[in-house]
Design a protein that fits this description.
The protein is of the alpha/beta class and 240 residues long. It has one domain (16-237): Aminopeptidase. 37% of the residues lie in helices and 23% in strands. It has helices at 3-14, 50-59, 92-102, 108-129, 150-153, 176-182, 203-210, 224-237; strands at residues 22-25, 28-35, 40-44, 65-70, 77-79, 82-84, 136-143, 158-160, 170-173, 188-191, 213-220. The protein has a 9-stranded mixed beta sheet, sandwiched between helices. Strand 5 and strand 6 form a beta hairpin. The chain starts with a helix and ends with a helix. The chain binds zinc ion.
């Protein structure tokens, strides 16, 4: 443990109110909710996924862990005057591809400045989102009708589709043992453990590459009951 985190642990262990309330990377600013002591970490990273925010905020009223909730209201966040999908900022190559896609007219120098800002700050945010040893990070997402588990099937290591008529609701995990548990649920689940040739800069790819436990919980926007039900199933059956 580094001297700084040791000091933080000592200080915040006794005075949790002094722990930081926010963390940011470029224009992605996250509010931090802490309750109790737990190895669970939670994330809501897309500002337009309102269902995920509601479900996670309510969940934290009855569960221990640390939750990071993006404060943006839009999906993209600003970085050096450009737009960026925050779930593409976890690798330089993924961020660069996304910056070019969302900012067709940007000059190469402007893209380079944005990438430099991300490179300087990335590791601090990644450390916060990494669960303690053996712990689990759970990211809540919502999709519209366009995206579904069908897009993940071809690039996954293992797939269990118990709800083929609900392709928009699924778990995506990085740890085989979590997959084995999640596939006993009544829900869809895919395992993505190996890093594919193209790194898209998402947090799930970073978690898989670094070997930590991560679960994405995707549910159609506007279906909080379904997201709550699946999150509760995970809490009950997947060990901390
Ligand atoms: Zn999302």
């Amino acid at each position: 443990m580094s001297e700084l985190s040791r000091r933080e642990l000592l200080a915040f262990g006794w005075f949790p109110l002094l722990a930081p309330r926010h963390i940011h990377l470029a224009g992605a600013r996250f509010r931090i909710l802490r309750t109790g002591r737990s190895c669970r970490r939670y994330l809501r990273i897309h500002g337009d996924e309102e269902t995920a925010r509601l479900v996670l905020e309510r969940h934290m009223q009855t569960h221990d862990g640390v939750a990071y909730i993006v404060e943006s209201r839009t999906r993209a966040v600003p970085v050096e005057g450009l737009k960026l999908d925050p779930n593409r900022m976890f690798s330089r190559v993924g961020a660069e591809a996304n910056l070019q896609r969302l900012n067709r007219d940007a000059a190469p120098a402007q893209i380079a400045r944005a990438l430099a800002v991300l490179d300087r700050g990335r590791e601090k945010l990644v450390r916060a989102l990494t669960p303690p040893r053996g712990g689990l990070t759970i990211a809540l997402h919502n999709n519209a009708r366009g995206y579904s588990v069908e897009e993940e099937v071809g690039i996954s290591d293992r797939v269990s589709l118990r709800q083929p008529l609900e392709p928009h609701a699924f778990f995506l995990c990085t740890e085989p043992r979590d997959y084995e548990l999640l596939k006993t649920s009544p829900y869809n689940v895919v395992l993505q453990q190996k890093t594919p040739p193209s790194d898209d800069g998402s947090l799930s790819r970073l978690a898989a590459a670094r070997g930590w436990r991560y679960v994405n919980l995707e549910v159609l926007i506007g279906e909080p009951e379904r997201q709550r039900e699946m999150l509760n199933w995970l809490e009950w059956h997947v060990p901390e």
